[in-house]
Design brief:
This protein has helices at residues 18-23, 25-33, 37-45, 47-51, 58-66, 69-74, 79-88, 93-101, 105-113. It is an all-alpha fold.
Length: 137
């Protein structure tokens, strides 16, 4: 049974803790396999066949094939391991981060140069802000 975790009250936040590590173990092992050139070549040649060699869930495999980094993180992926997929695709970390926020690489870079995202809307549930859930009646 999962522990009550205060960070769950922050919408859009995925903290890589022990629970996430267990959930994403095989996904992250797959990512680390991409450090070897021969594995990258096999993955690029037939993604599905290579993914089927790993004990990942079907949902994890689908998220990899869709390159849905947010979903992969929700399914236990660690962003530092997931970066291996981006590198295999020839993507920079900025391009990957931009895709996770719905921004282009250029817009993401400009936002970070300006000091990052505004805190407006990034509130804990129960506080004011765009990200809070509707109050329960």
């Amino acid at each position: 049974m999962a522990l009550d975790k205060a960070f769950r009250e922050i919408p859009g936040t995925v903290v890589f803790d022990a629970e996430q590590a267990r959930k994403g173990y095989w996904l992250n092992q797959f990512c680390m396999s991409l450090m070897k050139a021969e594995n990258r070549a096999r993955f690029k040649a037939d993604e599905r066949a290579y993914l089927d060699e790993w004990k990942m869930t079907e949902e994890q495999k689908q998220a990899v094939m869709a390159r849905d980094l947010n979903r992969m993180m929700a399914l236990g992926g660690n962003i530092y391991f997931l970066a291996k997929i981006g590198a295999t695709d020839g993507k920079s970390f900025q391009q990957m981060a931009g895709s996770m926020t719905g921004m282009s690489e250029e817009d993401y870079r400009a936002m970070m140069i300006r000091g990052g995202r505004s805190i407006e809307g990034n509130r804990k549930i129960g506080e004011t802000g765009d990200a809070q859930r509707p109050p329960k009646d």
